[in-house]
């Protein structure tokens, strides 16, 4: 164990000594761990894998009896909408992860989700199954049935450590706490009659129960549409009500928006088949109960009450129309309290048999006490905790948020809230941990600068991390003259703190950042002109495409704050867009490779072209400094020779000078030139000893 | 004369407009001075303000400028600071006041929102328009215009301006002209599209401001319409003035002198002149023609009819027309049709400048297109030659294509497995694949060597497991040995030679002096003599444990050099024979050539490797030229002297040679090492060679054999 941890050890030992009086719990057992991972969901197990691979002292605490308990219940209609694409036509494991949204990362090539399900949209039950397999095959240390109800922090000289208390009163003292509890508290909005509403978490999933019923669903996200879709064939009328209009994932490129797999209701709405979407605020509405026969003129004849008469129905109204009525007392509601009375074509004037709330979930903030308390993020209506660019809680050092709960960094933009996104951010956080607590710098590949172009093309053509976490994780290239260091999947928002987080230094040559990005211009996603095919207009690309930023020095925190709206990074000294590609293959010489090479040449201020040995020979004789390719190849005796067929092409293109002076008769065989030369007496007859 | 002074007046407005507002003409009123000003009966334009925010500040700056401009029209521009002096009725309670008022005497002619009078042009145009309210008629429909025309017929000409948006510079120009010429012409302003149609504008939606001159004064009969002339230049004060002057000038001027000497009213108006020649025989006809031309070009060109009969006219008869552009020489030409004339002026002379610009733009665009399309051309010789082969499928069937599944089995099998790691987007990889296939062909009959390749674009894990960070990479796998990276030239010949030499175990253990001799003389492994005449023998006494260092080094050098190892009591004798001490190195360069011997002092394999590499390199310049600069040199050596062919030529072209001064204290760096580091160096020192034969050293000043291979500037023969 390195010094840092040893120091932490000492610190926490002291803190333990200090905190012992008065804080002794029932079964007074205390466990110590360097790393505690809270929650054995996908994010927790993912982190568990990385910790176990680097042989750290860690424990994963899970309150349920198995991993991924959220998936035991959710999604309620049991269809996962994460793509499980098994056949991609490619063998590249890394590339295939671009289209496998369910698997976790590991070094086992076969530990993929496709082992448990072959469906494109798998059954939800398979997910806990996959997680159990992942956990057991990798031998991760998970402690099940440990319900942590309280988390405190002890702060010693600004260095926080965390004490977790479970349902038995057992304490877990953790130097680093990794919270991967996900979002599971159903989001509720307080309005009059909100208690009359059923929740997504408990609503019946049997379509038969909705036979001929009018249903009002609050929300327009995937859970709302999923619920609507399941009852589409039974319910009489389904209305979806929420403040914002529906956002389609295939338009916004955000997987959290409504996915096409759930959107059948859009059809029945637009084809006028009784269903519909309505926009309106949730806070000022009221749901009121009213007997069906009320409001009708009484004829004096008492009819026996039928079952349908007895049935109460719900009306959506505005709280201001209730005149201080409680609203829950169905009997008090008169026609004047309903909007239809005032506005005779009010869209939601008809009563509903059910009102269902499908508003998503929020983070459970309640278990964090005192110094461990987590601030709310400003986005997503405060449902998520606020985190730094490297996913450490704001104000809670040594506490990191992983998984869906860390989505506030890229809410409604990238995939950080989803398995296929956060598996990479977890990996990034693990690299941060390794550097901070164990002095293991961020892994980097050292490359010859002449190999940089090829390496960038390799990454943009296969890397899944930057592809899934577009605009969030990017590859960093530290330029160092003849060589460069290539760091993968760094959270680009954390660039101002790059040196501290990665343990690597920026040289005076600066750095490049490779990120994937969608275009900022919002165009009609299916309309004409949606795609750009001219590489000269690559900056207009709309679809996901690689963008390379060049900075001579690290951007500062201020630069980062003041970056242009929608940009993942501040304005660079030079930027290069690689033109979007229909096949997402960026490997063509004219449209992809050469423009990128020229950009790199501009940034590195050097010629990055490749040359045949013959050209290198000539260039070495006629230049003070031959091109880099010649210096790193030919002049190291590793030049690239080529053959007469290729030279002929180069000469015809005017790129290689034709034979000078008297031409050697072209020996057709290549060997004749090279091999038998040794037969001649090679030795010089000249006396060298001057 | 009046016209000229009007120009002067207008010019001074323009200059006032851009003049510095230092001496502000903006009157700052107190409540009292405001009352006085109003009572004086003057026209004044006053802003009442209190709070000054940036928008108001900008407005006041514009107001100051307009004070200059409006002063010439007798309009006083002022402002009242309501926070100091409250003027009833005008100083309202609002914090930000956005109203200005135009007073004539005590009456408010009009009030404006400052959004309407947003800048100096807008202020001047709106104020003048209000002041001239009774003089400038505002019409919208053709019927209204006809009414104005009816009233003017026989009395006055009409100037009609079409302004798309009020308050722009064109509006101001029109109003200023109306102020100057208001008594002379009936001014009409319109913003409507219906009128444009009435006046024959094809596309009324075009936003251009326009001005027409309706010749109503000369119309005697009520039923006759007023002929009109369109001003074809942009609406500026100067252009309007020029245009109105031209409307006043006679339609056709007649003269009896050469065009150079013609003096007409147009001269000072900077208007092109058209000269038509006539003689008494055709005078009437020519005059009619000239008049019709003049009518059509009215307002643009002055037409002069020149009587040839006069003796002062010396223009040759072959020309019947001429024109003179302002500040240019007279140009003569022959006219055949009137249309040509119109064409000449409308299309070529006037639009000429514009067209040229357009053409330039087009050219620029084309140039830009050219630039883009030239960027589409690959400028990398390897990429381009590979790209030219894009239609050709390389036959790689003979070479095994490895996958993640087959890789580990393939590299652990018996014999030598050579694996090329490549990516298909790298041109060097694709080009090298051709050489690789050639090597595979050449090794067809050699057993024990198999060639394979891995596509790292597809089998990324295989490549990352092998730590491949550079493409192409060639690795050599032998069972239960660490993979060896090929570090030679990426060419068919070099790789072929390397692989053949790799077959020989390294080091080759020799057991007797007889074997040693046969090794050094090239009898042992004689098939490989052609590949490498150089043989290196390590001599160790049986007790020496440093043998492992040699073995380690030999392993790394496998394929580069043939290495033998003789660990025997007799090694001592061999060392003595060559007067060195054990451990020692013997280098043989072929049978019958004096062997070199070195005592070994290297303690690490790395040191030993570089030592062996330096000793085995050919003596200065011969073989290294071949192997390193291979084809490049053989071509250059087509003349008798390398030096002459290369360096002299380059010098002559003014290209300086790469020269490097020897590092301090390293004067005795062996040339061989230098050759390795910089393979071109040897040749630069001058090599005599015959066509097709290897180089031989030519002794030249500045070249000092092995001891110093530095090329100095003085090395030129």
Structural category of chain A is: alpha/beta
Quantity of strands of chain A, as a count: 23
Our measurement of the CA-to-CA distance between the termini of chain A, rounded to an integer number of angstroms, reads 62 Å
Instruction: Tell me the number of helical segments of chain A per DSSP (H or I, 4 or more residues long).
Output: 20
Share of residues in strands of chain B: 15-25%
Oligomeric state of the chains in view: heterodimer
Give a quick account of the main beta sheet of chain A: strands, pairing sense, barrel closure.
Answer: 8 strands, mixed
Please report the number of helical segments of chain B.
Answer: 23
Strand order of the largest sheet of chain B: 1-3-2-4-5
Specify the helix fraction band of chain A: 10-25%
The largest β sheet of chain B comes out as:
5 strands, mixed
**Contiguous uncertain segments of 5+ residues of chain A:** 8-26, 305-309, 660-690
The average pLDDT score of chain B comes to: 74
How large is the share of residues in beta strands of chain A? Answer: 15-25%
GO biological process, one term (chain A): ERAD pathway
Pfam families (chain A): Pyr_redox_3 (PF13738)
Protein name (chain A): FAD-dependent oxidoreductase domain-containing protein 2
Keywords (chain A): Oxidoreductase, Signal
Tell me about this structure.
The complex is a heterodimer of chains A (690) and B (717). With 690 residues, chain A is an alpha/beta fold. Chain A folds into four domains: 2-68 and 127-182 and 363-380 and 418-435, FAD/NAD(P)-binding domain, CATH 3.50.50.60; 194-296 and 307-357, FAD/NAD(P)-binding domain; 443-604, no CATH class; 613-680, no CATH class. Chain A is built from 20 helices and 23 strands. In chain A, strands 1, 2, 3, 4, 5, 6, 16 and 17 form an eight-stranded mixed beta sheet that branches. Chain A has a six-stranded antiparallel beta sheet with strand order 18-20-19-21-22-23. In chain A, strands 8-14-9-10-11 form a five-stranded parallel beta sheet. With 717 residues, chain B is an alpha/beta fold. Helix content of chain B is 38%, strand content 18%. Chain B has 23 helices and 27 strands. The longest helix of chain B has 38 residues, at 338-375. Chain B is elongated. In chain B, 41% of the residues are buried. The chains are: A alpha/beta (690), B alpha/beta (717). At the A-B interface, helix 4, strand 18, helix 12, helix 16 and helix 17 of A face helix 11, helix 13, helix 15, helix 20 and helix 21 of B.
């Amino acid at each position: 164990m390195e010094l840092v941890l040893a120091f932490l050890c000492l610190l926490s030992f002291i803190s333990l000594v200090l905190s012992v009086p008065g804080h002794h719990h029932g079964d007074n057992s205390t466990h110590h761990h360097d790393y505690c991972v809270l929650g054995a969901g996908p994010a927790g197990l993912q982190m568990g894998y990385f910790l176990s691979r680097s042989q750290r002292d860690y424990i994963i605490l899970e309150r349920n009896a198995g991993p991924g308990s959220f998936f035991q219940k959710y999604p309620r209609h049991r269809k996962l909408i994460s793509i499980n694409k098994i056949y991609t036509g490619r063998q590249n494991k890394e590339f295939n992860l671009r289209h496998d949204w369910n698997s976790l990362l590991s070094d086992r090539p076969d530990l993929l989700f496709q082992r448990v399900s072959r469906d494109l949209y798998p059954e939800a039950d398979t997910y806990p199954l996959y997680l159990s397999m992942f956990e057991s095959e990798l031998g991760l240390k998970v402690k099940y049935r440990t319900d942590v109800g309280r988390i405190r922090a002890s702060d010693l000289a600004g260095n926080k450590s965390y004490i977790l208390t479970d349902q038995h009163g057992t304490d877990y003292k953790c130097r680093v706490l990794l919270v991967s509890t996900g979002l599971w508290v159903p989001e509720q909005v307080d309005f009059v009659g909100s208690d009359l509403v059923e929740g997504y978490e408990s609503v019946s999933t049997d379509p038969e129960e909705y036979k001929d019923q009018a249903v009002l669903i609050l929300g327009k996200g995937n859970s709302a549409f999923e619920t609507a879709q399941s009852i589409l064939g039974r319910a009489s009328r389904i209305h979806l009500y929420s403040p914002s209009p529906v956002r389609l994932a295939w338009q916004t490129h955000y997987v959290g928006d409504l996915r096409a797999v759930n959107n059948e209701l859009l059809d029945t709405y637009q084809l006028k088949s009784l269903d519909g979407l309505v926009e309106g605020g949730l806070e000022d509405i009221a749901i009121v109960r009213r007997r069906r026969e009320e409001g009708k003129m009484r004829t004096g004849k008492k009819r026996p009450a039928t079952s349908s008469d007895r049935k109460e129905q719900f009306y959506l109204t505005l709280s201001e129309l209730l005149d201080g009525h409680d609203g829950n007392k169905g009997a008090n509601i008169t026609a004047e309290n309903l909007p239809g009375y005032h506005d005779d074509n009010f869209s939601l004037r008809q009563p509903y048999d059910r009102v269902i709330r499908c508003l998503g979930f929020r983070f459970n903030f309640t278990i964090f006490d005192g110094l461990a308390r987590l601030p709310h993020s400003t986005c997503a209506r405060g449902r998520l905790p606020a985190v730094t660019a490297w996913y450490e809680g704001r104000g809670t050092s040594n506490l990191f948020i992983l998984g869906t709960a860390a989505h506030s960094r890229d809410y409604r933009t990238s995939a950080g809230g989803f398995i296929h996104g956060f598996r990479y951010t977890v990996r990034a956080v693990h690299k941060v941990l390794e550097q901070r607590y164990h002095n293991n710098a961020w892994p980097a590949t050292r490359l010859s600068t002449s190999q940089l172009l090829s390496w960038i093309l390799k990454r943009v053509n296969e890397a899944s991390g930057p592809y899934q976490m577009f605009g969030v994780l990017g590859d960093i290239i530290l330029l160092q003259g003849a060589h460069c260091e290539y760091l993968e999947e760094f959270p680009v928002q954390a660039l101002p703190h790059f040196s501290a987080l990665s343990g690597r230094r920026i040289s005076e040559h600066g750095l490049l950042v490779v990120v994937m990005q969608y275009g900022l211009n919002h165009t009609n996603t299916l309309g004409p002109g949606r795609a750009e095919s001219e590489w000269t207009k690559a900056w207009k690309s709309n679809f996901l495409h690689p963008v390379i930023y060049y900075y001579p020095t690290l951007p500062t925190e201020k630069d980062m704050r003041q970056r242009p709206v929608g940009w993942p990074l501040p304005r660079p000294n030079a930027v290069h867009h690689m033109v979007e590609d229909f096949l997402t293959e960026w490997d063509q010489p004219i449209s992809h490779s050469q423009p990128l090479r020229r950009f790199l040449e501009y940034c590195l201020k050097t010629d990055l072209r490749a040359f045949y040995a013959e050209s290198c020979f000539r260039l070495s004789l006629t230049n003070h400094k031959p091109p880099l390719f010649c210096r790193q190849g030919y002049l190291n005796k590793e030049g690239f020779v080529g053959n007469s067929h290729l030279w002929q092409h180069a000469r015809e293109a005017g790129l290689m000078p034709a034979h000078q002076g008297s031409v050697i008769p072209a020996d057709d065989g290549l060997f004749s030139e090279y091999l038998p030369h040794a037969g001649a007496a090679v030795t010089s007859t000249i006396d060298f000893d001057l | 004369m009046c016209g000229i002074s009007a120009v002067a007046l207008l010019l001074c407005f323009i200059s006032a407009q851009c003049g510095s507002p230092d001496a502000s003409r903006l009157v700052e009123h107190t409540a009292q001075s405001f009352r006085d000003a109003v009572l004086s009966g003057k026209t004044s334009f006053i802003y009442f303000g209190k709070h000054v925010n940036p928008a108001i500040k900008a407005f006041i700056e514009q107001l100051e400028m307009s004070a200059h401009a409006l002063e010439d029209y007798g309009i006083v521009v002022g402002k009242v600071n309501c926070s100091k002096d409250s003027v009833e009725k005008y100083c309202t309670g609002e914090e930000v006041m956005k109203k200005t008022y135009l007073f004539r005497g005590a009456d408010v002619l009009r009030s404006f929102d400052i959004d309407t009078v947003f800048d100096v042009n807008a202020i001047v145009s709106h104020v003048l328009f209000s002041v001239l309210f009774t003089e400038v008629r505002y019409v919208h429909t053709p019927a209204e215009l006809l009414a104005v025309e009816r009233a003017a017929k026989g009395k006055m000409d009409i100037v009609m301006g079409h302004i798309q948006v009020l308050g722009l510079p064109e509006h101001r120009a029109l109003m200023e002209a109306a102020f100057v010429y208001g008594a002379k012409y009936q001014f009409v302003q319109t913003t409507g599209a219906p009128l444009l149609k009435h006046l024959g504008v094809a596309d009324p939606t075009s936003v251009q401001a326009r001005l027409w001159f309706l010749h109503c004064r000369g119309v005697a009969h009520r039923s006759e319409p007023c002929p009109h002339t369109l001003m074809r230049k942009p609406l500026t004060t100067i252009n309007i003035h020029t245009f109105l002057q031209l409307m006043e000038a006679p339609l056709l001027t007649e003269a009896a002198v050469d065009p150079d000497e013609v003096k007409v009213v147009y001269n000072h108006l900077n208007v092109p002149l058209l000269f038509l020649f006539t003689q008494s025989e055709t005078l009437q006809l020519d005059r009619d023609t000239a008049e019709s031309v003049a009518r059509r070009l009215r307002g643009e060109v002055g037409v002069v009819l020149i009587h040839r009969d006069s003796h002062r006219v010396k223009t040759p008869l072959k020309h019947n027309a001429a024109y003179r552009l302002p500040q240019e020489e007279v140009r003569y030409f022959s006219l055949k049709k009137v249309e040509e004339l119109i064409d000449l002026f409308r299309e070529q002379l006037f639009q000429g400048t514009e067209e040229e610009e357009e053409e330039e733009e087009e050219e620029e665009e084309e140039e830009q297109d050219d630039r883009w399309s030239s960027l589409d051309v690959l400028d990398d010789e390897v990429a381009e030659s590979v790209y030219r082969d894009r239609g050709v499928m390389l036959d790689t069937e003979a070479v095994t294509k490895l996958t993640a599944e087959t890789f580990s089995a393939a590299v652990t099998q018996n014999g030598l497995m050579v694996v090329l790691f490549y990516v298909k987007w790298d041109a060097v990889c694709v080009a090298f694949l051709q050489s690789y296939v050639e090597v595979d062909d050449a090794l067809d009959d050699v057993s024990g060597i198999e060639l394979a390749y891995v596509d790292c674009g597809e089998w990324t894990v295989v490549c990352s497991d092998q730590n491949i960070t550079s493409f192409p990479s060639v690795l050599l796998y032998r069972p239960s040995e660490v993979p060896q990276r090929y570090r030679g030239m990426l060419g068919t010949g070099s790789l072929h030679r390397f692989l053949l030499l790799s077959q020989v175990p390294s080091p080759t253990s020799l057991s007797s002096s007889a074997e040693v001799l046969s090794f050094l003389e090239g009898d042992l492994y004689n098939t490989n003599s052609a590949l490498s005449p150089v043989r290196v023998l390590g001599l160790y006494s049986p007790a020496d444990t440093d043998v492992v260092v040699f073995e380690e080094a030999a392993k790394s050098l496998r394929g580069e050099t043939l290495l033998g190892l003789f660990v025997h009591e007799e090694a001592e004798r061999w060392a003595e024979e060559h007067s060195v001490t054990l451990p020692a190195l013997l280098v043989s360069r072929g049978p019958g050539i004096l062997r070199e011997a070195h005592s070994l002092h290297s303690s690490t394999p790395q040191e030993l490797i570089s030592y062996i590499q330096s000793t085995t390199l050919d003596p200065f310049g011969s073989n290294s030229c071949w192997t390193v600069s291979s084809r490049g040199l053989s071509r250059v050596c087509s003349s008798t002297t390398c030096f002459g062919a290369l360096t002299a030529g380059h010098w002559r072209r003014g290209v300086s040679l790469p020269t490097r001064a020897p590092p301090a204290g390293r004067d005795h760096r062996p040339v061989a090492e230098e050759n390795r580091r910089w393979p071109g160096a040897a040749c630069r020192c001058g090599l005599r060679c015959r066509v097709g034969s290897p180089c031989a050293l030519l002794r030249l000043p500045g070249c000092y054999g092995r001891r110093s291979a530095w090329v100095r500037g003085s090395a030129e023969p």
